[in-house]
């Protein structure tokens, strides 16, 4: 079955992006947005200077605490996004990656 797809000039064809790069983008971007939302929600109700870890106060400034919190939220969100990606991806026979035989 021969399928022709019109490509608009100046727009990159998604089929030319490697599978791993598409997977990384599919995981990193949603998890980044979720981490930003979680960080805003968490630190709008918790003062960074009053955080206690294992009974000891955290000796970091506000910016460092915000940054560390964002990174932790990003890691957990990336884990959730990667699990969703792994569980929801189509079988390898249905994937269109790179310049493989997508038109056959």
What does this protein look like?
With about 100 residues, this protein is mostly helical. The chain has one domain. It has two helices and two strands. It is elongated, with a radius of gyration of 21 Å. It starts with 18 loop residues before the first helix and ends in a 16-residue tail after the last helix.
Radius of gyration: 21 Å
Shape: elongated
Mean pLDDT over all positions: 80
Counting helices, strands and paired strands, the structural category is mainly alpha
Largest sheet geometry: 2 strands, antiparallel
- Percentage beta strand: under 5%
SSE topology string: HEEH
Summarize the amount of helix as a percent range.
40-55%
- Strand sequence of the main sheet, in spatial order? 1-2
Report the uncertain regions: none
Count of distinct structural domains: 1
Q: How many angstroms separate the termini?
A: 6 Å
Q: How many DSSP helices?
A: 2
- Total strands: 2
Architecture blueprint of SSEs:
Layout: H1 19-45, E1 52-53, E2 56-57, H2 62-88
Antiparallel strand pairs: 1-2
Helix pairs in contact: 1-2
Question: Brief overview, please?
Answer:
The chain has 104 residues and is mainly α. It has helices spanning 19-45, 62-88; strands at 52-53, 56-57. It has one domain (17-89).
List the defining traits of the structure above.
single chain; 104 residues; mainly alpha; 4% strand
């Amino acid at each position: 079955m021969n399928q022709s797809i019109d490509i608009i000039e100046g727009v990159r064809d998604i089929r030319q992006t490697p599978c791993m790069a598409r997977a990384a983008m599919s995981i990193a971007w949603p998890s980044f947005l979720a981490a930003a939302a979680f960080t805003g929600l968490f630190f709008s109700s918790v003062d960074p200077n009053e955080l206690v870890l294992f009974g000891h106060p955290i000796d970091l400034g506000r910016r460092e605490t915000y940054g560390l919190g964002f990174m932790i939220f990003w890691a957990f969100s990336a884990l959730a996004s990667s699990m969703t990606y792994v569980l929801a991806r189509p079988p390898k026979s249905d994937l269109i990656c790179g310049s493989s035989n997508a038109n056959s």
